[in-house]
Amino acid sequence: QVQLVESGGGLVQPGGSLRLSCAASGFTFSSRAMRWYRQAPGKERELVAVIANVGGGTNYADSVKGRFTISRDNAKNTVYLQMNSLKPEDTAVYYCNAIALRLGAPPLSDWGQGTQVTVSS
């Protein structure tokens, strides 16, 4: 059974930092690209960051570029999101997503339950 469990969310002041973790099980972790999404109340879910399964290539939303860093430890089946210089607009539920593209079939996509991040003074 595929399972993705996020942790590390909480309340932080503007300018502060948090590190989110996503522990994966039930699939071959190294075969999946990993993504972080976030969703604020009343807004659509948006892609925050992605890291490739091989080579460690990364990409970020413009709104977080230079402040957030995605990384993965395949030996621990865990993906991280280091968030620095946090702003109130970063407040959202953050979700971990594991994906794999497949020829002739829809992509595999599995989601965690989310962890709340609140940035407020």
Textual characterization of the structure:
This protein has 121 residues and is an all-beta fold. The protein is built from no helices and 11 strands. The chain has strands spanning 3-7, 10-12, 18-25, 33-39, 46-51, 58-60, 68-73, 78-83, 92-100, 108-111, 115-119. Strands 2, 4, 5, 6, 9, 10 and 11 form a 7-stranded mixed β-sheet that branches. β7 and β8 form a beta hairpin. The chain is globular, with a radius of gyration of 14 Å. The mean pLDDT is 96.
Summarize this, please?
The chain has 121 residues and is an all-beta fold.
Write the layout of secondary structure elements.
Layout: E1 3-7, E2 10-12, E3 18-25, E4 33-39, E5 46-51, E6 58-60, E7 68-73, E8 78-83, E9 92-100, E10 108-111, E11 115-119
Parallel strand pairs: 2-11
Antiparallel strand pairs: 1-3, 3-8, 4-5, 4-9, 5-6, 7-8, 9-10, 9-11
Number of helices: 0
Number of strands: 11
**Helical/strand content category:** mainly beta
Low-confidence stretches: none
Task: Give the N-to-C terminal Cα separation.
Answer: 40 Å
Radius of gyration: 14 Å
Beta content comes to over 45%
Question: Tell me, what's the shape?
Answer: globular
Amount of helix: under 10%
Largest sheet: 7 strands, mixed
Element-level helix/strand string = EEEEEEEEEEE
Overall pLDDT score: 96
